Amino acid sequence: MKIVVFGAGSLGSLVGGLLARDHDVTLVAREAHARTVRESGLRLEGVVDGPSRVSPAATTDGTGLEADLAVVTVKSFDTAAAADALATGSIEAVLSLQNGMGNEATLATRIEAPVLAGTATYGAILQEPGVVECTGSGEIVLGPRDGGSSARAERVGETFAAAGLETTVADDMPRRLWEKLAVNAGINPITALTATENGAVLEEPATDLAREATRETARVARACDVSLSNREALAAMETVAKATAANTSSMAQDLAAQRRTEIDAINGYVVERAVENGLEVPTNRTLTALIRTWEQGRGRR
Ligand code: PAF
């Protein structure tokens, strides 16, 4: 299969690197990473089976690409730009493997190809250009963005599973996206603000805050007609925090590197949907305000 991974940061490089063992993969990445991958390949650390060095193609220019599948792994605030670049090429299908809400809709309004929704709970870190480490085993869940099943989703699921990625093809992606949102709302801002690993949200004193942010998200999901109980959301958040306990969340990585975060598409999204539905979500509101304050202080917005 000809696959483009658009946004080869930590997760994109891990997924793209594993797929590159058997497929014709092109990574769209930042300059230094793309150059190193072109010159000396991509080293995969923390993955058990198969070669630990692969040689995908790598470029910084995402326009005019041809592929059977484009896996979009850019930050949520870059989704529109990624979609516009992909729309200039010839892409048969698109899979969003991103944090936050609204990415699939943005892709679908800008690209003609069918869009699959996906979530990923792998912990990954780009150690240096050309080197990605898997720091927490997780799962990829994917399926048609409005729910239901499709032969295309099954095919992509089989391709990912054969590459060694734990993959589930789901027929309830809208609910799965909210469940993942509840996971990220609980883990990401707290680990970012406190510079801790994901496991910190399982311990006092952070755990009460993380659990409340997760519960609030489940409450908002239900107000949006998505069946997600507090218990299910908490179980999902705690399972991911345990499996990736030693991992630095993507938002913690962003703060450490002084980059813009995905707060708007995670806790900020929860606050917006809560307001629309007349709900109070004080924990999500506070976490959003703190991260936005940090971003403004750093001139990142
Ligand atoms: O954003 C992240 O870091 C990831 O979605 C997750 C699953 C929380 C693991 O760190």
Automatic annotation (TrEMBL):
Superkingdom as given in the UniProt entry: Archaea
A molecular-function term among this protein's GO annotations: 2-dehydropantoate 2-reductase activity
Any GO BP annotation: coenzyme A biosynthetic process
Pathway: Cofactor biosynthesis; coenzyme A biosynthesis
Pfam families named in the record: ApbA (PF02558), ApbA_C (PF08546)
Keywords: Coenzyme A biosynthesis, NADP, Oxidoreductase
EC numbers on record: 1.1.1.169
InterPro entries per UniProt: 6-PGluconate_DH-like_C_sf, 6PGD_dom2, ApbA, Ketopantoate_reductase, KPA_reductase, KPR_N, NAD(P)-bd_dom_sf
Function, as annotated: Catalyzes the NAD(P)H-dependent reduction of ketopantoate into pantoic acid. Catalyzes the NADPH-dependent reduction of ketopantoate into pantoic acid.
Database matches in NCBIfam families: apbA_panE (TIGR00745)
Protein family membership: Belongs to the ketopantoate reductase family.
Name of this chain's protein: 2-dehydropantoate 2-reductase
Organism whose genome encodes this protein: Natrinema limicola JCM 13563
